[in-house]
Amino acid sequence: MACDIQSKPINAEILIAEDSPTQAEKLRYLLEEDGYSVIAVANGKEALAAARRHKPTLIVSDVMMPEMDGYTLCREIKRAEELKDIPVILLTSLSDIRDIMKGLECGADNFIRKPYENEYLLSRISYLLMNLALRKNQKMQMGMEIYLGGQKHFINAERQQILDLLISIYEDAIRLNNELHARQLELAHSNHLLSGLYRIAEGLNQAVTEREVCEKALEHAMGLPGLLSGWIYLENDNTFRLAAARNAPATLAAASMTDARCECQRLFLAGDLGQVTNIVSCRHRVKPEGDAETPGWHASVPLRSGNQNRGILNVVGNGQEPFNDNELEMLYGIGQQVSIALERAWLHENMEQLVAQRTEALTTEISLRKEYEARIVRLNRIYSVLSGINTTIVRVRGRQELFDDACRIAVDHGRFVFSWIGTFDGEARNVTPIAKAGRDDGYLSQLSLDNVLESSGNSFLIAQAIKQVKPAICNDLTDSRMQPDYSTALERGYHSMVVLPLTLEAEVVGVFALYAPETAFFDEEEMALLNEMAGDISFALDHLKKVERINYLAFFDAVTNLPNRALFLDRVSQRIATSDHSRKVLSVIILDLERFSSINQSLGHQAGDSLLRQLAQRLKQLLPETDILAHLSADHFAIATMHQGESTSITHILDKVLLGIQNQPFPISEQELHVSARAGTSFYPGDGLDADTLLRHAETALKRAKLSCDRHRFYAPEFNARITEKLKLETKLRQALEQEQLVLHYQPKINLRTGKISGLEALMRWRDPEIGLIPPLSFIPLLEETRMILEAGRWALSKAISDYRKWQDMGLNPPKIAVNVSPIQLQQSDFVDMVASVLDAAQNIEIGLEFEITESVIMQDIEANIDKLRRIRAMNIEVAIDDFGTGYSSLNYIAKLPVNVLKIDRAFIINMTTNPDDFTIVSAIISLAHSLHLQVIAEGVETHEQAALLRALECDEMQGYLFSPGVTADKIEEILRQNKTLSMQPLPEKVAQPPQ
């Protein structure tokens, strides 16, 4: 290669190693344009191979390449003997000193940083090639050795640039380090400033009033670097006021706003305070120092609202010099934030005022709208009620169903708190509630509805609606005029009410009361709908009345209003269906009114109808409500009644009815008619098993009565005979009571531990002068059936007390006497009073008295009987449960009963020695009684074995034929004189197990 040191080498070939195709192409183009021959490869590995093949004049290589980087390529070039003289220029964007040292270590001839200028690169290549030519011509190489990073490096003229680069990098590093430190201080200051500005912005964002804005602005501004104090003036009509101050001069606090204006205020009013301005010699900043005055300064920041200044923010710094431009710009930014915040606060305060005004207007508008909507809702509710009731009117078939549905619809659809319907009795002037719905809580029962037209108080509106035949309204029950009568209504949440009259044929027949939870509920439009609703219900009542009349005439007699034959047969059939559950007998009676046709012929049918109506009313008065009464035909009436089987009660019923007709005249056409009747009777089930048969057989009995001229006859002839005999016995029994033919016998009770007499049971007997002594089963049931037992029972109690007194006067020390109480006696409400009167008549004689009452009788009305027995016990009278074990006692009630003694029924005693079940029952009863602290008496003891077994079971007392049957009072006197006792037999060996 020939060359001239003043020019480029001839045929210089440059090898380019560059992995970026764009950079490689750019470099190729640059070098070829400058006259060089160029070989370009993509990485260091390919460059090393190309260098060995072509022996280029110069190698230009990028540092960062794949396969092999520039450092490795340079090292390999300098290591190869045939290649080491080829200069290598490394191109890199790296500028760290370590990168330069790596270039020196690998033997690079030059180190050029990217990006480079084209002319610079070409000049370095030209310079490097020129030095290469000189070195070859002079055959020597000059340079110097340097130590860098602990290694020796040779720097020749070609490599001088690398050294320059190192020095430049070092100087740049020092300069950059100083700049970085200054920048760090500047950034710290900026961060502090930005943090303070952020706090100001954040504080202002939270402030909503003018005072809060000013206070927050100064509070956070004092946190900025370099600020010591500040204060804010706000101006209005050329007058300044101090809005806020922080660390302000003492002279400012003492100054009055009427004092001479300071410089910032003068500039503000003159319009010259358009920018942030340093104010020198502020009168509030002048500080005495010795005898001289040193002028102070501060910055004034205008606070603008729109295009108008509204105030001044004055701040004082801690430096000796006024604020510089950057600081003034910062203060201007603060002023902008404060101005915006003040504008927002003023807008907020104005908005609050506007919102308050608008809210008041909207509240009024909303109230009117809600009132209108509520009115629409109420009317829709009433429309719904009206529609629902009209639908009900079409569907229902009865008045009660109509009223029930109307009340329910009023509450469900009309949203009334409570509604009720009552019928009005014009004669009695009473209102009777018959349907209700909603929340009552006992309110309806507290209303005064008797003689409602004359009463006041809480039925005032009801009376007003009935009297005036129009709705009675109260839209505010809290009104003092409605108190205290309607206080109970208010307690239940009723605040408005209306009472609607229900009419039938222009007469008030009922009322419909509605209660609303709001006041002022019933307005004119709503009342129009409610009046329509009341009219619809009244129309429905008229319709139902006509329908009921049609249905009524199908089953009732039009003249007497009594059931006709069809309804009578139906009701008797129903009574037959339920009579199997009763111990009573059903009788069907037919009455025939004698000479009724002659009354019709002589006085007319109107008089006959009047007689039938009066007779129907009299029969209703004579018969219990449970009896069935019917009018079968012109002169025939029918009665169905329940009574005891084969008792004389049916005869008494017939006598009462027939005598009630005959003994009292009927006023007809200004005259009194005396009429009589005959009767025929049949019985279920003896005379027939169905209503038709019973009625037919009663008609047969009536015919027999007419033929025999008897007042009444029974269908079965043998029944007539039995009833006749019973009536005779009843008559004799009444005579026995009148003639004192009843006597008391006494059966002793024996203490099983001592064998001595511990008590006497009084037993009623009948000593007939003709027949002699009659047993109790022959007359006691008849006494109870005819209720003569009440008189006989009182006599028995008095007689027992009298006998006790006689024995006491004889010095016989009589034991307590037990008197039996009949179920009829205990059922009487005055039973306790009767006992008290008998005791009073005996002049409070000290007597041991005991009442024996059967178990089944006590359990019939347990609660009432417990009360009666407690009152009996209070009279020092003991109570014994008789025939225990044969009834259906509840153990729970047994424990509550105020009794002293249990008497085991003789049915268990008779077989207890041979029947294990009876033994177990007796043992259980004794254990139960003792656990309840009751004494136990065994009835019907007839053998010593029974007595011994009872004694072994720890039974307390016994009575029976083993010791004595019931005997006369004289015989008891003899027994007491003899102090007679029962000999005790040895106890059985085993009693733990029942007899086998």
What does the model show?
- By secondary structure, this protein is α/β, with parallel strands linked by helices.
- The longest helix has 71 residues, at 325-395.
- The protein is built from 31 helices and 35 strands.
- It is 47% helix and 22% strand.
- It is elongated.
Set down the secondary structure blueprint.
Elements: E1 13-17, H1 21-33, E2 37-41, H2 44-54, E3 58-62, H3 70-79, E4 88-92, H4 97-106, E5 110-113, H5 118-138, E6 143-148, E7 151-156, H6 160-206, H7 210-221, E8 227-236, E9 239-246, H8 250-254, H9 263-270, E10 277-280, E11 287-289, E12 292-294, E13 297-305, E14 308-317, H10 325-395, H11 399-412, E15 418-425, E16 430-438, H12 460-468, E17 472-474, H13 487-491, E18 496-504, E19 507-516, H14 524-555, H15 565-579, E20 584-593, H16 596-603, H17 605-622, E21 628-631, E22 636-644, H18 649-662, E23 666-668, E24 671-673, E25 677-684, H19 691-708, E26 712-714, H20 717-738, E27 742-751, E28 757-768, E29 772-774, H21 780-785, H22 789-809, E30 816-820, H23 823-827, H24 831-841, E31 849-854, H25 855-858, H26 862-873, E32 877-884, H27 891-896, E33 901-904, H28 906-910, H29 916-931, E34 935-938, H30 944-952, E35 957-958, H31 969-978
Parallel strand pairs: 1-2, 1-3, 3-4, 4-5, 25-26, 28-30, 30-31, 31-32, 32-33, 33-34, 34-35
Antiparallel strand pairs: 6-7, 8-9, 8-14, 10-13, 11-12, 13-14, 15-16, 15-19, 17-18, 18-19, 20-22, 20-25, 21-22, 23-24, 27-28, 27-35, 28-29
Uncertain residue segments? 1-6, 288-295
Largest sheet: 8 strands, mixed, barrel
Beta-strand content estimate: 15-25%
Number of helices, where a helix is a run of at least 4 consecutive DSSP H or I residues: 31
Mean pLDDT: 82
Order of strands, widest sheet:
27-28-30-31-32-33-34-35
Helix proportion range: 40-55%
State the oligomer: single chain
What is the SS-derived class? alpha/beta
What would the principal axes of the Cα set say about the shape?
A: elongated
Distance between the termini: 154 Å
Count of DSSP E strands? Answer: 35
Determine Rg (CA atoms, Å). 66 Å
